[in-house]
Design a protein that fits this description.
Radius of gyration: 23 Å
Mean pLDDT: 91
Strand content: 15-25%
Low-confidence stretches: 1-22
Helix content: 40-55%
Structural class: alpha/beta
Number of helices: 11
Shape: elongated
Order of helices and strands: HEHEHEEEHEHEHHEHHEEHEEEHE
Bound molecules: 3'-deoxy-guanosine-5'-triphosphate, magnesium ion
Amino acid sequence: AVIDPELVQEDEVIKHHEEQADPSTPLILVVEDEINMMSFLKDHLEEHYTVLVAASVQKAVSIFYNQKPDYVIVDIYLGEESGFELLQQIVQKARKNLIPTMLISADHSTDTRAKAYQSGAFDFLQKPIQPPELMAIIANRLRYKSIFTQQILIDELTGAYNRRFLQDELERQCSDFNRTRSAFSVAMIDIDRFKSVNDTYGHDTGDVILQGLSSTIMRDKRNSDLFIRYGGEEFTIIMPDTNSEEAEVLLERLRSSFESQRYKAGQSEISCTFSSGITTVQHHTSTPEQLLKEADIALYQAKEKGRNQVRQ
Ligand code: GH3
Ligand code: MG
Ligand code: MG
Ligand code: MG
Ligand code: MG
């Protein structure tokens, strides 16, 4: 029996959106055209993961690019199509985003296995699949991936995502917007007169303030908002599903909460402020470059108008 890919995908995508409330559950994409095999894999994987399924190369590619799974399992034999075709279309992005792929097949000849690894697959499993082995391989990969991701994507001092994350995420938001037409906003934040804080109280105090700002933001932002250290004392917040009014409310709240914090600096207590520029994609498509430029212009205006304020 062959799955109707249309039905399967719609169903699964909706499911994933509902489950997105828990972003800590890894997302596994399974590409398999045979319904018994599909449910078998799904049943086991769902004990630990959120599972998306696709029965064709085209559906798989679309889910892959839209949902960014954490791991991809691909059957080599997909009726008229082949898992190798799929791998070819996703391998570059998979590498860039550290998404491991597994090929599965009843054919486990040396040639097939070699071809699988040459095509970029990390793992190969021979059918019939043994669930403990499958689960152990995936668990290993995901553990490795999450440690590695922490190391390369998270800024050590502040715990914010580092800049590596920014371009990809902005591209993703822009392309989501083309699909959903749901507004999103981007804010640039720059600490005010930070150089003089460092000069007066020392770099360590400066570092504590950077950490203070980061904890404030990570506490007050929504789960879906992404907090990124753009560089030095500059940060970016990407706010999905957020129009300009909502973005301004959030940034204003962050601004006032940061302003009211006190930091120990030697004998004295000091406080600090930031300025922020917001831009929103609401009616028209945009590009990452354009968004950063607009947010930067708004930030510049906030500085010019006297700092410690939020501008659009
Ligand atoms: P403005 O209000 O115009 O933004 O003034 P500013 O002094 O904040 O601007 P400027 O860009 O001249 O200075 C930024 C300072 O941020 C300079 C640098 O010493 C400091 N800085 C950047 N990264 C770090 C860091 O990781 N730790 C500390 N302590 N300071 C940093
Ligand atoms: Mg098959
Ligand atoms: Mg700066
Ligand atoms: Mg500056
Ligand atoms: Mg500054």
